[in-house]
């Protein structure tokens, strides 16, 4: 059912309810006014009651001839009816006995605690109230029809305008959703509204922006992967075609070069798959309690030869011998390795790369964490590049050759591996002076250590 139809039905029901409420109020008000009139002129009612009871006593406990009697205190009453044993023995006025029994004020007549009859009376005030009620009941059907007709016409116009105004943002939202379905990234929603429609619009617009960003990232990833794959494939294809054209076997040097390209392709595919799983949350961690100080020491031993080739000093400083973290060892080592390799690569010959491991308190987490700092005094990262260094295939050193520069996914993979462990990475850098990557990981809890 459309909103417009619902509004019209709701308005019609409201009108009927109001009219019937007026009817009920009028009906109740009649009896209230009738009873209030008794209390305002209670003496007159009492005198009339006593006069009828006296007549019964004066006639030897009989109502014989009462219908012809003229009662002195009846002059202030517009309607009087006396009923005894279901028979009307006395009546003054024009109203039917059924009406008097239904709407008249009831007075019981007694003789020596014995009920001898009932009076149904209306004084002038009560009778006027009855006439008003009766008039209202008579004109109510016509009033109801006219009111419904006039109100329906007026309501139809008002409802049409209101429903058009109320459904306009809905129509825009529906059109926007249809645009999203068609892949339109520039859909406009009524986000400036301050009601529920505005909240829905803002949520949908943010969702559309996220979808557009995700689609752009997907396209960019495909483009970057294709670009990265193209170079080694072209090298392999060129060497193979050249060997085939000349009909000469490949030399050991050529085979070694082709193997390097194949390994580079394999590394790229592995990194892309690994990063995709991390970003999609499809990686299931198997954490164990590990001594991060020992892990960093092992990492330094594995990369020491790279530092020695460039005459770079590689050292570690730890605040404690044992600081336990709950991690999947291979992933954290992979993350730290990628960062350390970058530090060594961007440090000039004779430079220094230092690693610091320390326990510290995190106000945000309100708990202890371990901080691993990998600091170099190399070329540094330009400030404009800092926000993008964890993006896929992004290189701060744009002159760095691709064959010697890795896949461009190292820092992105490092960041994702740290994030899935509930940690984070911070970077500070200054051109020419060097760069410091700080990796933060939660400290292993006592219950984790006990269970492992």
From TrEMBL:
Which of UniProt's keywords are assigned here?
A: ATP-binding, Cell membrane, Kinase, Membrane, Nucleotide-binding, Phosphoprotein, Transferase, Transmembrane, Transmembrane helix, Two-component regulatory system
Q: Mention any one GO cellular component term assigned to this protein in its UniProt record.
A: plasma membrane
- GO MF terms held by the record: ATP binding; phosphorelay sensor kinase activity
Tell me which residues make up the HAMP domain: 164-216
> Taking every annotated instance into account, which residue ranges of this chain make up the domain Histidine kinase?
224-445
Give the Enzyme Commission number. Answer: 2.7.13.3
Put simply, this protein is called histidine kinase
Matches recorded under CDD domains:
HAMP, HATPase, HisKA
Q: Please give the organism.
A: Cohnella terricola
Cited PROSITE patterns: HAMP, HIS_KIN
Organism phylogeny: Bacteria, Bacillati, Bacillota, Bacilli, Bacillales
